[in-house]
Specification:
About 35% of the residues lie in helices and about 20% in strands. With about 260 residues, it is of the alpha/beta class. One of its GO terms (biological process) is cobalamin biosynthetic process. Pathway: Cofactor biosynthesis; adenosylcobalamin biosynthesis.
Amino acid sequence: MRVLILGGTTEASDLTRLLAADSRFDATISLAGRTANPKAQPVRTRIGGFGGADGLVAWLKQDATQAVVDATHPYADQISTNAVEACARLAIPLASIVRPAWELRPGDTWIPVASAEAAADALGPEPRRVFLTLGRLELGAFATAPHHHYIARTIDPPNDVPLPPDIRLFSGRGPFDCESETTLLAREKIDVLVSKNSGGAATYAKIEAARRLGIPLVMIARPNKPRGHGVESAEAAVIWLEHQRTHRTTSCSARGV
């Protein structure tokens, strides 16, 4: 069964490993290309956009794709919108790995906002030491609040993204642990964190560290992301694919194909 995985997450990498070891499936993973040196995958890999829903429809036809698994980041709403439309047009089954969001716990102080721009406004008029744990493309939103001192952790350098004048960058890729995150926040005398509610375990340590130190966190809400059949893990996606394959095989047998 030919499967397209829309990737870029830990769950997507887990799914490629499972499918690469299963001869029933012939998988391709598609990465957006926002990371300069993505991790190598054990299945065919394509990098870059499709050109909207129309481009994705054309690619799915050319590849003779039989099922799609959307394992993109919770904030990658545009590709998910395109996937829902393209799969509906071609009657291709679509599953979406839905990573549960982080939830507020006792000791957390979250300031919920709708966007990176709103997060910059929420930092307030008094200068603060701010730890930005966002994608590099969102850093430009904080140029409108230049009176703060920023420390930003990204996988890749922001390159041509306009930055606030007082910012220090360093690279890092999860998973992180609570002890090192606590040490980082304390050493840098951080007053407030800014984060997306990405969910998962890889970067949750910063939430634990902020709770431990009593540091507030400006939390950017998730977008309203379209999806197909919801599953919560790579393993659940494989079970769904097995069902689709069985259903397809049964249907073909009934038609005498």
